[in-house]
Design brief:
The chain has 306 residues and is an alpha/beta fold. It is built from nine helices and eleven strands. The strands form two sheets. Strands 6-7-8-3-9-10-11 form a seven-stranded mixed sheet, with helices on both faces. A four-stranded antiparallel sheet has the order 2-1-4-5, covered by helices on one side. Helix 3 packs across helix 4 (116-129) and helix 3 packs parallel to helix 5 (145-158). Bound molecules: adenosine-5'-triphosphate. It comes from Xanthobacter agilis.
């Protein structure tokens, strides 16, 4: 069980290749391995074109990898499933349905035998959870962009997916709405122990939301360079996060990667780098604590003279 939980999502040597117009193939990435434990919030960061959306689509079952496989909870993915809910940048709501209708449609697809009252109750509960109580009977066209994205989030969470997949879900929103929605998603996912894989270009968003941040090198032939364990405390709060002693340590590490190492990593791989086990990097006080734990104490009998 512990082994299944630590490999809840297991990406095993996947590749994405496309035929070139002029002949031959372009390899966007290959031999990509990654494990995500149950209940973890993981962000994937990398430059445009490195294949982040392709990885997410493969996880969603919307694309088939050119090689390799993805195992979720012990089962290989073979197509889309209600076990894996996706929130895209655009909300993709059904325009002719109300807020309640959009969420209820997902709920009744998930629990086909559920009665109307049960579907209604569950849908309303999730609509309230994302702060849209009172807007149940509005149509998407009557909502702001932020409200539509909230409906998308309610719809995804209402089906209690094993995995929540998000592709830059907040990037089209204004800064204030983005912040509020990040807070809500974080609150809900932390409270429910939701396993999440999210793509973002925003380093600060990743530091605020993620337990681990996966760094992808530039494409083509992109690789997972490393996985950064977020050193900030789980109970971090947006307004004070930048005052934490580790905040700029992790931020600078991520920015350095994006500015230079994402380009040079392929030619300057650290000794012992193994794509099957991308290194988990600990930074700041977490790194110091790990170092201390590895320090061999003097034997109790040792004296200064020994
Ligand atoms: N159907 C396709 N045929 C050929 N090439 C494709 C196809 N779909 C995607 N690609 C290429 O695959 C690469 C990776 O695309 P993908 O959208 O996964 O990258 P990304 O890292 O998510 O980029 P962005 O951050 O810009 O969204 C891109 O270079 C893209 O042009």
């Amino acid at each position: 069980m512990a082994e299944i939980d630590s490999k809840f999502i297991s990406i095993e040597g996947i590749a994405r290749r496309y035929p070139k117009r002029e002949g031959g193939v372009t390899t966007i990435f290959e031999n990509l391995w990654l494990q995500v434990p149950r209940g973890e919030f993981v962000c994937i960061i990398g430059h445009s074109g490195c294949g982040k959306t392709s990885v997410l689509n493969i996880l969603a079952g919307l694309e088939t990898p050119s090689d390799g496989a993805v195992i979720v909870d012990g089962q290989a993915i073979s197509g889309p499933s209600l076990d894996r809910a996706v929130i895209f940048q655009g909300h993709a709501l059904l325009p002719w349905r109300t807020v309640l209708g959009n969420v209820a449609y997902a709920v009744s697809s998930r629990w086909r035998k559920a009665g109307k009252a049960e579907v209604d109750e569950r849908s309303r509960r999730f609509i309230e959870l994302v702060g849209l109580k009172g807007s149940e009977l509005k149509k998407p066209a009557e909502l702001s962009g932020g409200m539509r994205q909230r409906v998308g989030i309610a719809r995804a969470l209402s089906i209690e997916p094993k995995i929540l997949l998000m592709d830059e879900p907040f990037s089209a929103l204004d800064a204030l709405t983005r912040g509020t929605l990040q807070d809500e998603v974080r609150r809900i996912c932390t409270a429910t122990g939701q396993t999440v894989v999210m793509i973002t270009h925003d380093v600060d968003e990743a530091i605020y939301l993620a337990d681990k941040i996966v760094l992808m090198t530039n494409g083509p032939e992109a690789m997972v360079a490393e996985v950064v364990a977020n050193p900030l405390p789980k109970d971090r709060v947006r307004d004070s996060i930048h005052r934490h002693e580790d905040y700029y340590v992790v931020r600078n590490h991520l920015v350095d990667f994006l500015v230079s190492r994402s380009r040079t990593f392929r030619d300057e791989k650290p000794a012992g780098y193994d794509p099957r086990r991308p290194p988990i990097v600990k930074l700041g006080s977490a790194a110091q604590a790990a170092e201390m734990a590895n320090t061999i104490p003097f034997p109790a009998t040792a004296s200064a003279r020994d």
